[in-house]
Amino acid sequence: MKQILTRAAMVAAGLCVSAAALAKTEISFYFPVAVGGPITKIIDGYAAQFNKENPDYNVTPVYSGTYQETIVKVLTAHKAGKPPTSAILLSTDTFTLADEGAIAPIDDFVKTDADRAWLKSFFPAFLLNGQFDNKTWGVPFQRSTVVLYWNKELFKEAGLDPNKPPQTWAETISMGQKLTKKDASGKVTQWGIQVPSSGFPYWLFQGFSTQNGAILANAAGNAVKYDDPKVVSALQYWVDLSRKHGIHPPGVVEWGTTPRDFMERKAAMIWTTTGNLTNIRSNAKFDFGVAMLPAGERRGSPTGGGNFFIFKKATVAEQTGAYKFAQWLTQPERAAQWSIDTGYVAVSPAAYETPALKKYAADFPPALVARDQLPHAVAELSTHDNQRVTKALNDGLQAALTGAKTPEQAMKDAQTEANRLLRGYK
């Protein structure tokens, strides 16, 4: 009898161990990727490594489409009472997510000196879009700025110094004129400069408006200045690149095809995200350079990209695991490798002091340009009801670029619509 009891006790103990082994806290991690590829392999690797090092947790990446598709999915799940535990979403979605009661402030999980040191370790420019009401709602993960890429071979062919990109708006025009080529019929075969105006026109435009000394929105996210004379003249400059100077494609320029146009030598200079750096480096068949955006009254670029958010309706255990995962993802060595693998800006100064990123930057100096531009960077346009307020500006920008409206009228109409949308948040 005693032997039977002992065996029963051993079986029971074994079952308890098995149950404990199985009782992992599940952490869903929504990540904005539309298709499979290198990025998904990297994220899958991160999840597997974290799970191995932290056996109490099981992070499961969910690849959820574009940023726009991802926020729709997570807010739908939130309203249905089944939100993800965590997600990478645009930093500009912070107001929307907080207004919906969807996310928990990161401050809720900061308990120790080490936690506080971690939160202070990020580049200040990258925290701007994740903070309001004296709270930090999300932390930087895949972040970027707009930068200028130029084809050094085409510069040389045009009689320009291949190592000197334009430093000012005036130089952009003069160099662009030398870099624009036409065939015998007068058709342009190579544009001097190309700035995309689909997808994220407001983001590219923030380069122009910031350089002209204008700030599009206040920090509280309840007022914009689309009709500021400096905003209007910045838009006029963008329109003039095409209509007056003939160095930029007319109408709306596609976001997605701009890097390809650059690599196919259809554009000698382009503005796009530093997140395209690895793509262009891997596929361009010519020597190219990367530079800060040219200055108007000043230098300037918006920051961009995604933050890591933790969802409010997740369990305490899930939130704790997600917070631990956020810290793990943003450690200097990992942030450095992410930057090397993708072209995004590493999110902390400490990442640039790691041996891996130091070596990479020594071999490929363009990797430092976006970091060096951060002192000139401003917060990306973000307000309450952000998607509709931003759409008002996007519609105005495209109306001006296509010639449907003057820049002044386009920005006046955008301001009227934004005022209507933001009235309830004053």
From TrEMBL:
<dbReference type="Pfam" id="PF13416">
    <property type="entry name" value="SBP_bac_8"/>
</dbReference>
<protein>
    <submittedName>
        <fullName>ABC transporter substrate-binding protein</fullName>
    </submittedName>
</protein>
<dbReference type="InterPro" id="IPR050490">
    <property type="entry name" value="Bact_solute-bd_prot1"/>
</dbReference>
<feature type="signal peptide">
    <location>
        <begin position="1"/>
        <end position="23"/>
    </location>
</feature>
<dbReference type="GO" id="GO:0042597">
    <property type="term" value="C:periplasmic space"/>
</dbReference>
<keyword id="KW-0732">Signal</keyword>
<dbReference type="InterPro" id="IPR006059">
    <property type="entry name" value="SBP"/>
</dbReference>
<comment type="similarity">
    <text>Belongs to the bacterial solute-binding protein 1 family.</text>
</comment>
